[in-house]
Amino acid sequence: MQRGVLIPAAARTAKRAVIATLAFVGVPLAFVSASPAAWSPPQGIASSNAGQYSRPQVARNAAGDSVAAWYRLGPSGKNESGALEAATRRAGGGWSAPVRLASGHLGATAPTVVIDPRGEATVAWELSTTFAEKGKKRAGERVAVEVRSDRAGGGGWGRTVTLASTREPESSGSVPDPQSAVDGRSDVSVAFQLREHDTTPVNGREDVLLFTRHGGRWHDPKVVGHTVNSSETQLALDGRGETILAWNHGGPSGSREQWVQALVLARNGKDEGRAQVLSSKHGTAYALDLAASSSGAAVLAWSQELPEGQGLGPAQAVTRPAGGRFSHKPVTLLGKSSPPVVTIDRQGTATALFERAVTRGRNEADARGALEAATHPANGGWSKPQPIAAEGDPQALASGPHEELLALWEAGFQPAGQPPQARPVIDASIRPAGGTWPPPATISPERTSEGSTDLALAADGKVTAIWVREPAYATYLIETADYQPG
Hints:
mainly beta
């Protein structure tokens, strides 16, 4: 997802008016929206009866070029026989046929995609393969992060480049979690965690590596930090030329401790001070989300895990003023909620979106509550959470060029005058600068797959959303919809 433009969101209002009903791939859908003309009808770009789609990602630029990538799992639903596929769309045209970029055991995290101002798309992913060590029966594992680019102007997808790889004597469970970003000069950065150069493993230690492609060539990595038993990386580039990185750092093997660290690199690549520890070292921080603005301000949020049986824990966040450091003491946005998603606009106002969790009995799972948002102006503190919808699972949230906010979330299909049904749809809402959140628009047909939604917002305010849908048993579709500002 391209930061500073959109972020995951979740929301749903209890009452909506049915605007139109139409059929799409044989499944009826009631579209509900205050401005139905703003979102295009869904466009199918891939279909499969032989394996499930997973983790689609999308990016677009202001010229109207777009790229989407996703995993297609084997018939068993496992990754062993999976493939990474991608499609591109040039300004004014339609989506290309899907292209297979890689095959094999794909990573546990989503592929990451960017597209530069000239229209060159880049996809990065994790791939692992097994090997037999000489003279030993036990197999080892090679974990690699690879990239591939589609050149603008009809150049096609180039060769696969392996940024880094490591070999483990046995399956390590390593999760590099590659993240990518692109700047206005078309330089691409990719960051992830991996033990470098086949070095001897030491208590689960890995390196936080930052690769940059400049002048059409990938350069040697910068080792920006070290982690232990970690699983998440976040990366953002701001308008000052700075690179902001965040990751979680773990305690000894077998412990539940994971805390958040962050580091800022100046335009020249040098560290702006030491890495900051931003969360408690005595808890478990996970589901990090980072966003930066064109001015250099940033917001970083995460969830704190509670002991088993206590349900969802608190959502916490820190902010960074342009040119400064992150606030050392995190703010608890809500005591029990889904993991937050965040964005920050060019004026430095940060917004976090999350779904409130409603505590039930001691041994019962938390119930889903309202979708809520909290804001943090550049010279103020975090507001109290304000409800946006009756319920929803946040998927994306982004800030537009005029300080508008765009949120995307999963919601239950709600026929007119009836309660929501267990047939998920994607809802969206766009809040104008200084205004309030309007009722959402349902932009997808029914039966979208859980956790399968992404959003890309370009500098001109145009948007592309992507999701996976299962209209019938063992039939899977990749679909997109576009938003055109009025």
